[in-house]
C-alpha cells in the first residue's frame, strides 16, 4: 500500500511515517520515488506505537529493532536483551512514580495552605488614628473634621468627613473617599484591563521589561526609605508597584495610595489585608490635583509611570502637583517612559503635542521644580518596539 493509505490505516500523520523512515525504524520498499508498505511494515509500526506507550524513547526502540533484525525476535539473545530493557524501563517508571507522588504531595500541601489562607479572617485596615493630622481639606487646605466614626484597632474604618468651607467627604471601609472624584479608569474609552486580563495578552518580554523597571526603582528607594514616616505612590495601575515593593517596605512607614478608581482601590486593599502583614496604609479615592493631604508631609513620592498618563490626560506635568507635598529634602522616585525622539516629536501634529515629550523634557521639568538628581538609569528592553523608560531618584532642594 502507498504511504497515504498506510498512514491512515495506522492513524498517524504522513510526517510521522516519513520521520520513522528517516530514523530507520520503518524500511519500506521503494519504486520510482514512491514508498510501498506491506504487513511487516504494519507490524513494525504497531510495535513502535506499543513501545512508545511503554515509555521507550526512539533511540531505545532503534536498539531493540537492531537486535531483532539481526538475531530474530524469538532468539535467546534478543529475548534477554528485550527482557533487560523492559526491567530497566520498569525501574525508571517506578522512580518516576515516586517522583510524581512526591510532587503530588507537595501540590496537595500547597493547595491546602492556600485554601486555609483564603478561609482565614482578614484584618481590616483603615486610616491610622495617628495619621488623621495628615488629612487636609482638598478645597481650602484646612484640617478636616471627623465625626460619627467607627474605629477598630486604632484605625478609622467609617466616618463622615467635612470642613468649615463646605467640603464633604467620607471614610468607608477604611478608604478616604472624595465623592466628586469616583469614576472608572479608562483606556481608549474602555475600562483599563485588570491584571488578569493584562497577563492574558502581554508577552513575557513586556512583563520582564516592567519587572526590570520596578526592581530598579525599588533598589533606588531602599537607599532612602529607612526612617521615612510617609510614602505616597501615584500610579496609573493601582497597587501594581506596591505589590512588588511591599516585601521591602519598612515596618513603621505609612504608605499612601491615591487614585480615583474606587473599585481598583478596594481590590488592592483586599489583597493587602488578606495576604500581607503590613497594616499602615492610607487609601484615598480622589483626583491627584485634589489630594486631601497636608503639604510638606511626605518623605517619598513614587511616580510609577504616572507622569506620562497625567500629561496625556490633563496636559500638565505631575511634578507641579506633587512637589508641594514633599518634605524639605524629600525624595522623588520614579519610572518615566517617553515615546518619541525630539526629531519625531517635531513632526507630530499639534493636536498630539500633549503626550509627545522626550526624556530631556521630563528631566528639565523635574529640575525646574527644585528637584536635584541623585541617580538615574536606563531600563534596557530586549524588545526593540518597547517604549524607552528610565528610573530616577531625586531630592527636593531646600528653599
- Helical fraction: 40-55%
Task: Compute the separation of the termini in Å.
Answer: 92 Å
- Count of helices? 13
CATH architecture descriptor of the largest domain: 3-Layer(aba) Sandwich
Counting structural domains, the number is: 2
Radius of gyration: 33 Å
**Quaternary organisation of the protein chains:** single chain
* Number of strand elements: 16
For the record, what is the CATH homologous superfamily label of the largest domain? Vaccinia Virus protein VP39
**Order of SSEs, N→C?**
HHEEHHHEEEEEEEHHEHEHEEHHEHHEE
CATH topology of the largest domain: Rossmann fold
General form: elongated
Structural class: alpha/beta
CATH class assignment of the largest domain: Alpha Beta
Major sheet details: 12 strands, mixed
Indicate the low-confidence ranges by residue numbers: 342-354
Average pLDDT figure: 88
Amino acid at each position: 500500500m502507498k504511504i497515504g493509505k498506510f498512514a491512515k490505516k495506522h492513524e498517524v500523520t504522513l510526517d510521522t511515517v516519513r520521520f520513522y523512515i528517516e530514523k530507520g525504524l520503518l524500511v519500506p520498499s521503494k519504486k520510482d520515488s514512491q514508498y510501498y508498505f506491506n504487513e511487516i511494515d504494519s507490524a513494525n509500526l504497531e510495535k513502535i506505537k506499543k513501545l512508545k506507550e511503554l515509555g521507550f524513547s526512539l533511540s531505545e526502540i532503534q536498539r531493540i529493532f537492531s537486535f531483532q533484525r539481526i538475531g530474530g525476535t524469538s532468539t535467546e539473545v534478543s529475548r534477554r536483551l528485550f527482557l533487560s530493557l523492559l526491567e530497566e524501563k520498569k525501574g525508571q517508571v517506578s522512580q518516576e512514580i515516586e517522583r510524581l507522588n512526591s510532587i503530588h504531595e507537595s501540590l496537595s500541601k500547597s493547595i491546602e495552605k492556600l485554601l486555609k489562607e483564603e478561609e482565614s479572617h482578614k484584618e481590616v485596615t483603615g486610616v491610622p488614628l495617628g495619621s488623621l493630622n495628615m488629612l487636609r481639606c482638598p478645597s481650602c487646605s484646612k484640617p478636616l473634621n471627623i465625626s460619627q466614626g467607627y474605629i477598630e484597632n486604632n484605625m478609622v474604618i467609617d466616618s463622615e468627613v467635612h470642613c468649615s468651607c463646605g467640603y464633604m467627604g467620607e471614610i468607608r471601609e477604611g478608604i478616604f473617599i472624595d465623592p466628586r472624584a469616583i469614576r472608572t479608569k479608562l483606556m481608549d474609552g474602555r475600562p483599563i484591563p485588570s491584571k488578569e486580563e493584562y497577563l492574558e495578552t502581554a508577552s513575557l518580554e513586556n512583563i520582564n521589561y516592567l519587572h526590570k523597571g520596578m526592581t530598579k526603582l525599588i533598589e533606588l528607594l531602599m537607599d532612602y526609605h529607612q526612617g521615612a514616616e510617609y510614602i505616597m505612590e501615584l500610579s496609573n495601575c493601582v497597587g501594581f508597584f506596591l505589590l512588588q515593593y511591599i516585601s521591602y517596605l519598612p515596618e513603621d512607614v505609612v504608605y499612601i495610595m491615591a487614585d480615583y478608581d474606587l473599585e481598583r482601590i478596594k481590590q488592592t486593599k483586599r489583597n493587602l489585608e488578606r495576604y500581607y502583614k503590613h497594616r499602615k496604609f492610607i487609601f484615598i479615592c480622589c483626583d491627584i490635583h485634589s489630594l486631601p493631604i497636608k503639604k510638606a508631609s511626605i518623605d517619598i513620592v513614587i511616580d510609577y509611570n504616572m507622569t506620562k498618563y497625567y500629561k496625556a490626560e490633563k496636559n500638565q506635568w505631575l511634578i507641579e502637583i506633587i512637589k508641594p507635598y514633599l518634605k524639605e529634602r524629600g525624595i522623588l522616585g520614579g519610572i518615566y517612559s517617553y515615546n518619541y525622539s525630539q526629531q519625531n516629536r517635531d513632526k507630530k501634529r499639534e493636536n498630539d503635542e500633549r503626550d509627545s515629550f522626550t526624556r530631556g523634557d521630563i528631566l528639565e521639568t523635574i529640575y525646574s521644580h527644585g528637584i536635584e538628581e541623585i541617580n538615574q538609569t536606563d531600563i534596557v528592553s530586549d524588545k526593540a518596539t518597547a517604549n524607552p523608560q528610565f528610573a530616577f531618584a531625586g531630592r527636593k532642594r531646600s528653599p
